[in-house]
Amino acid sequence: MVEGGLNGLKRKEERPMKVRLLLLTLALGMVVVFTIKGTELQAAPQLADTIRVHSVSESSTKNFEEHVVKPFAQKMGVTIKVLHGTYGKEAEWLAAIKAAPGEYCIATYVSDFGLFNGASQRLLQPLRLENIPNYVNLEEKWAKRIIVPGDKNVYVAPVDTGMFTFVYTKDTVTDRPDSYSPLFDPKYSGRIALRDYGLYRIFQTAAYLKLDPNNMSDQDVDKVFETMASQKKLARAYWQSSSQLDGLLANREVWLADYWFDTVTRPDKEGKNKLAHLNLGWWFPKEGGPMWAGGPVIAAGCKDPERYTAELLINYLLQPDVYVKYTAAQGHMPTLKTDKYDSRAFFANVPYRAAYRDAIVNTAFVMDVAKISAKLEKWNQRYEELKLSK
């Protein structure tokens, strides 16, 4: 969790939302973008020739480059070089921005608590929606979501909603689970891997205990941690990276684990995903679980023309035909208005994608980020102490 704020970091004054049309002119080998405001033609910031992109995985950065940056650059008649970077957790990226403002620009995915911490500490810049007219294509539930109470700025283009899925090794677990119960069953002692993320450990355990994670009393929290302590004795590992978990599953050291749905279902060059490569089954617990919503953000200190270029890239991403391709490649759940794309075709012939949608719609709950953030530091400390206990 990132703490504190940035002294001296000020937001630039936002420009009025009056942009109506973008025109590209090639003159003497230089790209100049113009905006029309009323009847007046004015020069806008020049496009950057380099964009810094960070993601939680190399494949996510690659998808952003292949489905967004390259076709956008081709459409505009320019070349944009992508400088790649990855981060293990959103908090790591935010801490890096705080330590070196101006050294970062786009993160392809930041959600909930990363958004709250980034916006409240001014580590993220508000999106200038006059440069992102396609933002109106998003469902209002997510487009108008307030991240920090009292702050009406938009910090993210929420291109995805999600929740953890759970996987099992099909050759060792013959009956497909449908709840959290196997993760707390001594029958599977030493064969369970759990995502090393305190918040989700707490909320998934609360769901298993049929508690409301957004409204837990001190007694409820104690019960959750007591149950987590018992579960710790069953866990073989608390995994921190997909490569670590893949190794445990491939060697059959672990039979049951939670996983990122988009990562485990994302096809490789051969058209196969990790479910196929590792012979895994999947399920969504009937008790439900915490969900997240997130997407691309822009770091504090990213200045024009790179900031402007980043906003145009986000706008291009929110173009329905581009969005559908990118979302399918990422394994994301669409947040576009349903009249903006063919939802029936998107979910056809992909059973796990439809199941993911149904699980989110029917069982997932939205976290009260601001309310939980006030307790999160204490909970995280308690979680770390639990992992160190015998």
Provide a descriptive summary of the structure in words.
The protein has helices at 58-76, 90-99, 112-120, 140-143, 198-208, 218-232, 242-250, 261-265, 274-277, 306-317, 320-330, 343-347, 351-363, 369-388, and strands spanning 22-27, 30-37, 40-43, 50-55, 81-86, 106-111, 160-162, 165-169, 192-195, 235-239, 256-259, 280-283, 289-298, 364-366. The chain folds into two domains: 22-161 and 292-347, D-Maltodextrin-Binding Protein, domain 2 (3-Layer(aba) Sandwich); 164-287 and 355-388, D-Maltodextrin-Binding Protein, domain 2, CATH 3.40.190. The radius of gyration is 22 Å and the shape is globular. Strand 4 (50-55), helix 1 (58-76) and strand 5 (81-86) form a beta-alpha-beta unit. Helix 1 (58-76) packs across helix 10 (306-317), helix 5 (198-208) packs across helix 6 (218-232) and helix 6 packs parallel to helix 14 (369-388). Mean pLDDT is 87; it is low at 1-44. It is built from 14 helices and 14 strands. The chain is of the alpha/beta class. Helix content is 38%, strand content 19%.
